[in-house]
Amino acid sequence: MVAQREPIIIDTDPGIDDALAIFMALLSPEVEVRAITLTHGNTSLEHVKRNAVTLMHVFAEHQKHLGIEVPIDSLPVLAAGCDRPLKADLISATYFHGEDGMGEVYSKNLHKAPSDWENQLLHKAEEKVDNEYKDGERPAFKTTPRDAADEILHQLREAPPLTISILAVGPLTNIALAYQRDPVAFGRAKRIVIMGGAVDGPGNVTPMAEFNFRADADAADIVMSSTQGFQHTPEGYQQRLDLISQNKPAPAHVVVVPLDASDEGAVTKQDYEKYIIPVDKKTPVATFCNAFLIWTFETCFRLYNLESLAIYDAFTLLTLIDMTADKGDGKNTETLDKHWSYKHLDMHVETSGIYTTGMCVYDRRLWDETSFDNGVNNVQVITKGDGRRFNQYILNRVFDANIQL
Ligand SMILES: [Ca+2]
Question: What pLDDT does residue 82 have?
Fold first, then answer.
């Protein structure tokens, strides 16, 4: 039994693997999703917003299907953020995720968002305006007048220090903006777990760069720099608390799950056909995911001749779940240590390379003996995870499959 759910904010650009990560988070007893903040990325922010509203409506239907009553106050806030990178030109990944970012799911009439979905989101919304039952229907999420970066800061200010974790699975524009707007409030985050970067292997959108870091390299580098002075020790934890109580910026605990550690974060078509298709639970979440997963397996085969689908964002969520027992002082890491390998690196992200924008650069001269107390970056980088365990997690939670692998 889980003693206490860790409150989390998901910053995301749904996106196929984002959708699976969001459902896995909403269906995981270890975490409580307080806010979902949206960024440009896999597709345009307009599509990302529509996808997020759709996912929340699918999940509301799922809960209704299961007879689960959720008080309106416990629903996640949905906040729209940046529609472009801090400085660079916009890029997207519609070649993989489809023009709508969700495997053309809308052409299959699975669009669950109401016709006025746009009005339910930021800039036109007021806090709590939609937080009432309408015609007996519970709203699917809470609205906010704040943009993504301000909503992140608001959530961090409202909660006790070092209690809310951020799962960042898109380009890091909103996260960097939150840091720039208020480094003191930003330093109140317990940790920031990021899917992004290619640390010791090749990239996926360029030879050196992974998509999320390439899509806003400036933002990624800013977020890495927020770790300066971080110590993953009881003394470091106390120092962060002291700085927060003095209203000063505390160094952030940033965890990166890079592309080269994510090979294990894939589901094979064989497992999917063997375990999921026969289950056929027909829950709203499973029905919706099946609609785009079949399309996605076909796309993986057409584009890459692959019979598996990488679900990096959900794999990164599992890292976060496995870290919840560690309050930030580097103790209680048994679950993490058992299932994951990692190292701490003085890592930066190249922002202005001719061939290398978005590349992760770390000091290979020193990393065995780097002292992280002298203003260098201190990023915890995951190097390997356990793929079978991940498969079991995601298939059981999202598809209610009860598989033992
Ligand atoms: Ca993503």
Answer: 93
